[in-house]
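Human:
Class, as today's exercise, you are to examine the entry below, and be ready to discuss the fold:
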Amino acid sequence: MTDRKRRKGLIASAALLGGVLTVAACGASNATGHGGGANAGRQDGSQHESTQQVDEAAAQDASQAKITITPRDGSTDAGLNDAKVTASGGKLTDVTMTTVVAHQGQQSQQKTVAGTLSADGTSWKPKQALSRATTYKITAHGVDAQGRTAVENSTFTTVSPTNSFIGNFTPEDGSTVGVGMPVSINFDKPVKNRQAVQSAISVASSSNQQVVGHWFGNKRLDFRPKDYWKPNSQVTLKLALDGVEASPGVKGIQNKTVHFTVGHSQVSTVDTKTHLMTVVRDGRTIKTIPISSGSDDHPTYNGQMVISEKFKQTRMDGSTVGFTNNDGKGEYDIPDVPHAMRLSNSGTFIHGNYWGKGIFGKTNTSHGCIGLPDVKGAGDPSTDGAWFFNHSQIGDVVKVVNSPDQTIKPDNGLNGWNMSWSQWVAGSAS
C-alpha cells in the first residue's frame, strides 16, 4: 500500500468515526469524549442549562393574578346565565365581552355586551342574560400586587333553541293581583322529567300558606295554596331552571326571581237563576249588579273563574270560538265590546253590554258570557259595566252558580280552584 492510499484510508476512517460520535452526542450518550462528539455533548448541556434558566426567570416574572373565565373556551352549549369572570391572586382591570351580529347584505359587526365589575375587582358578569345560539368572546385583563399583568380569553356559543327550554309565567314581576291568582308556568317544550323541573321551582308566601304545584299535561305547571291567598301577602316565585334537564338533551336556561303582591279579596258570585251578581270585598258585600248570562242553548260554565285579562274595549267574533253560521262567519261579531275581562281560554268573558235592552236582571241571552249594563264606547263611568271593571283586578274571582252547564275544567284558564285539594296534590311531581 502506498503512503497516498494509506493516508486516504485513515482520513475515511476518521470521518466515519467522527460521524458516529457526533450522532451519539446528539443523543446525549457520548461516553468516550472523543473529537467533535465531546464538544457537541458539552454544547447541549450548556443549551439545556440556559433554557432552564430562562424558564425559571420567566416564572419568577409571571403575574400571580389568575383569571378564570366561564364558560370554558370552545363550549358549544353554554347556559344563558353561565358567563362570569373571576380573579384570584390579583384583580381584574378590564373585561370585554362581544358577540358578532350578522346583518343581511352587510359585513358582520361586533356588539359589546355590558357587564358589571365587582367593587373589589375579583369578579365580573354580564348585566343581562345572554341570547340563545349566539357566539361570544370574552377578553379579560388583570394585575397582581406587583403590577404584573395577566390576560385570558374564551370564545363560546350558547345553547340552541332546539336544546333548551324556558317557562313563560304569570303573574308579572311587581304586579298586584287578586286572591285567586295562581302562579302558572307554560313551558315552550314538553317536560319529561317533571320532578327535576318542579324541584327547581319554588313559590312561597309571606302568609306561610303551603303552596303545591300541579301539572296540566307536560307543558304547564300551576302553583296555588289550598285556599285563596291571604289578602295583602307577598309571594315570591323562584325559577332555578338553568342547566335542569327537561328531557334528554334539552336543558333550562332561566335563573329568575319574581315578586308579586296579593291585594284585596274580591269574590263576585253570579247567580244565573236570579240574574244577579253579588260583589264581596274583604268579606263585605259592596254591590249587587243585574246581569244576563248564557242562554239555555249556550249556558255559562259553573264554577270559580279567575280574571286573567282586562280590555277597556275589544272585538268579539263568534267564529274564533266555534260559533259560526252556515257561511262560516261568526254568529256574532261585535268590534267594540266595552269593559271586557277574560274568565277562560275558551272565550268566557264578563263584560259590558250596550246592545241588549231590558235583559239585565231578567233573562239570559248570551253565548256563555256574563253581560253587565254598559254604553257604547266605554266612556260612561257610572254604568255597572264600568264600575265592575274599575273595581276589579287580575286574579279576582268570579263564581258562577245555578247554571245548567257543567263546571268549567280546571285548565280552561287559570281555574284550578275547581279541583279538590287532594286532586290538586295528586298532580304534583314533587
Summary: The chain has three domains: 66-159, 163-263, 266-415.
